[in-house]
Amino acid sequence: MRLRLEPHDEYLHELGPEPNFNESMYFNVYDPAAETGAFVRLGNRANEGRGEMTVCLYLPDGRVGFMFQRPEVRTNDAFDAAGLRFAVVEPFEHLTVDYDGTVVLLDDPMAMADPRRAFTEHPHVPCSIHLDYRRVSDMFGGEPEETHEPTGEEFARGHYEQLVSANGTITVDGTPIAIDGFGLRDHSWGPRFWQAPWYYRWLTANVGGEFGFMGSRIARRDADGTRSGFIWDGERIRFVDDVRVSTTWDDTDHHRALRLTLRASGIDGGEPLEVGVTGTVRSLIPLRNRRDGMVTRISEGLTRWELDDGRVGYGWSEYLDQIIDGRPVGLDE
């Protein structure tokens, strides 16, 4: 499947005719020295007249600061809504993230399993984020030349990702935290329903700036789905063609540890590359999306990754599951 990716794809695309057209950017970062992590996301759903804004902070004392809003969005002209702004300084090289607003402070992030109660019973405090994101890895992904998703199951017409560094400041309730860490960013556009995948596992990691990976496992209701991703070896991208995940679940059906194997084909006739890694979830917040009677749970796990060769990195394990009869559908993987 051939992909197209040009510098102008860093900017907003023409608004498509689909009622559920979405264009979004996502950024994460973890700084081991500061013991602080964060991810932010803005999605424009202009044909629905709204957007999706998420800010999530994993603080050194174990608390999580969280905010979600559905601001009014009528055009697809900018990523700028509900206090969160993304700007492209230089395509594929340098972007900025800024937020001025509030977050809900959660002593126990699992409280977000009941979002109405979490938002009403926990304190809202001022928060600002000012981060510069810069290139670490090459780009991965783009827009396929031919449609590759069944009608009604679209999740992104175009999609790309990149390992990055992030520097700046996160301030929560008047306390600034200097950030000097690594993470991953992505950019997607096209029709999207969160209910399209049966379940997925999206696994990201940085071992400093010298090594990292993204593993993607997307299951379809009536098919095995896809297994893909990339490994960054510090010099180039290795394309992953097989991802195997084995999950340890807790008694509330949330993932708490996982075993991951990534396999990449050999380059120029060389040996294939296999990377084994064990993930331990340090903090997890459960989020959800509801549409047309379906409940979709997205569990965001800040994860410590240990490679089989002993190297340690950090990132996220994002588990999306449709909830049927009160339980996630992907428990067997």
Structure summary:
By secondary structure, the chain is mainly β. It is built from 1 helix and 21 strands.
How would you describe this protein?
It contains one helix and 21 strands. It is an all-beta fold and 333 residues long. The chain folds into two domains: 15-193, AttH-like fold (Beta Barrel), CATH 2.40.370; 194-333, AttH-like fold (Beta Barrel), CATH 2.40.370. An eight-stranded antiparallel beta barrel has the order 2-3-4-5-8-9-11-12. An eight-stranded antiparallel β-barrel has the order 13-14-15-16-17-18-19-20. The longest helix is centred in the middle third of the chain and has 7 residues, at 115-121. It is globular. The two termini are 27 Å apart.
CATH topology of the largest domain: AttH-like fold
Give the averaged pLDDT, no decimals: 95
- The CATH first-level class of the largest domain comes to Mainly Beta
Low-confidence stretches: none
Radius of gyration: 19 Å
How many distinct domains? Answer: 2
Give the overall form: globular
* Helix and strand composition category: mainly beta
Strand segment count: 21
One letter per element, helices H and strands E, the order comes to: EEEEEEEEHEEEEEEEEEEEEE
| Distance between the amino and carboxyl termini | 27 Å
So how many helices? 1
Reported CATH architecture of the largest domain: Beta Barrel
Major beta-sheet overview: 8 strands, antiparallel, barrel
Helical residue percent? under 10%
The main sheet orders its strands as 2-3-4-5-8-9-11-12
State which percent range the strand residues make up.
Answer: over 45%
